[in-house]
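Progress against Task 2.4 (sequence-to-structure conversion) is shown through the following example record, which the project officer requested during the mid-term review.
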Amino acid sequence: MIRDLINIDLDKLPISGLAIYFIKKYEVVTNISEAFTVPNFSLLLIKSGKFNMQLEDITQEMKERDLLVIPRNSYCSLVKVHGKVQLYLISFSTDYAIRNGLKKELIESFYFVIGLKAVKIGLEEKEFSVLSLICKLIYFVNKDAQNGSQDLDLQKIGFTLLLYELRLIYTKYTPEHIQQITQKENLIMRFFNVLSIHYKKQHDAKFYAGALFVTPGHLNKVVKQITGKSIKRLIVQTIITEAEILLNDLNITIAEIADELEFPSANSFSVFFKKHSSISPSQYRLNAAEKFKTH
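Structure tokens generated for the chain above:
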């Protein structure tokens, strides 16, 4: 079950890029030969029961209130299950994290997203309760989306809360891991930091490479290796996300949005937006207004 859920195509879900499941009863023992690769960043939050999961060459023993962070492209298998296991499983793509969580104050949370090693943390009861409530919020928002009701604001709030809590947990429990991050991970974190500050005005990969004192080719290679996305793709996605936020505010004209995002004209912004979202800014705004009326 976990293998099937964790390998689902996130782009085909009602909330593109995000999947969350609450597994109420997991008693299946998966043969170790049935190993699989985790395609997206995933979190397991254990509510009850025990099980062993092998990640790469390390067997993690999971129990009640444990949080397991699984990096993308991890090779793993479920080895043994003890008793009635209940858990939350959350998977999300790099694109989804960028769209919904790229804020300067949340950058530390991205250590989870770009980490190359699995992290297991035994949470205190209060921390577990808070994280469980956030998971419930995301779960019900996701369930509403499956039934055709999309609440983009609530989606963003839930994911932001998740990243805030992960940042607090990460800072408390894994300071030694931050000191042991690889040069590649450090470069990615610095890239995200610069991107979160300058994406409105700087649209060229050369700027980010220059700010980090590396060549554009090297930065793009490292970014793509760890996130699966090119620098250009991440920059574009960040700009489009900000543009959508601004378009939802009917008090701002499209010309003002183009100026805010440092485009030379409203027309060049419209061409850029339509190219990367398959819809014009005007049509996006009309669609957003219709959704608002519906709600």
